[in-house]
Design brief:
Elements: H1 2-30, E1 33-39, H2 45-51, H3 55-61, H4 77-89, E2 94-100, E3 103-111, E4 119-126, H5 136-151, E5 156-162, H6 166-175, E6 178-187, E7 193-202, H7 203-209, E8 219-221
Parallel strand pairs: 1-8, 4-5
Antiparallel strand pairs: 1-2, 2-3, 3-4, 5-7, 6-7
Length: 229
């Protein structure tokens, strides 16, 4: 009898999880989703701290060069504060909060940026897992590329991606990024090394590729309403 009861509880949990996912999918597939970028601020500290406790974010965001360099998960409060301060105050960075219908779902921005240079790097992280895999990260990157290659008038944008992150690589290729070289190695918690690949998007290629960019019909990109920093 206990076995039947436990099996029923398991079945009920699975049923509720599937029902919730179906309801969530219906919500995302039918509601208009406006993707916009705004400057990241200290009011976003709590969200960023929470996302830094997610092993998924750590695994795909931080390159680890070797044993002993893996960040502790979750980040300590001090380490999370240092990371947020870097995103906001580092003069070589321009960091935005990604919002969907005014809800903060992740961060995106430029690294190694200087008005004197004609290129920079970029990064993106979707903190809320229910928003992943729905074309919203792609839309946020498109908004950032328009800003970087248009408003800032840079010629190239670079990124680094781990070789096992095939989903991200596919998205970057859809946006026009081309794999150009290997930048180093990433060491995972299982003791395995993975290649870190560099990808590049030029202004000319973005002008061409964005005309063919496919997004879900209900996803709308709001242009970045900022002047040159």
């Amino acid at each position: 009898m206990l076995c039947l009861f436990n099996n029923w509880n398991l079945f009920n949990d699975i049923f509720m999880a599937v029902a919730f996912k179906c309801k969530l999918d219906s919500h995302f597939n039918t509601q208009k989703l406006e993707v916009s970028l705004r400057p990241l601020g200290y009011g976003d500290r709590e969200s960023v701290q929470r996302w830094l406790s997610d092993p998924y974010i750590i695994q795909l965001t931080f390159v680890v060069t070797g044993p002993g360099n893996y960040p502790s998960v979750p980040f300590s409060t001090a380490a999370a504060d240092n990371y947020i301060n870097m995103l906001i105050t580092d003069q070589s960075r321009v960091t935005f909060a990604i919002e969907v219908n005014s809800e903060h779902i992740g961060n995106i921005g430029l690294k190694e940026y200087s008005p004197a240079k004609n290129y920079c790097e970029f990064f993106v992280e979707i903190g809320k897992d229910q928003y992943r895999g729905r074309g919203l990260g792609k839309a946020a990157i498109a908004a950032l590329m328009d800003y970087t290659l248009g408003v800032l008038n840079l010629s190239e944008v670079h990124l680094e991606v781990l070789e096992f992150n095939s989903v991200a690589i596919h998205v970057y290729e859809q946006l026009g990024f081309i794999m150009t070289h290997r930048t180093g190695w990433h060491y995972d918690r299982n003791g395995q090394y993975w290649q870190v690949w560099g990808m590049t998007l030029t202004k000319e290629r973005w002008t061409s590729c964005k005309k063919q960019l496919l997004l879900p019909a209900n996803v709308i990109i709001k242009p970045v309403a900022l002047s040159t920093p």
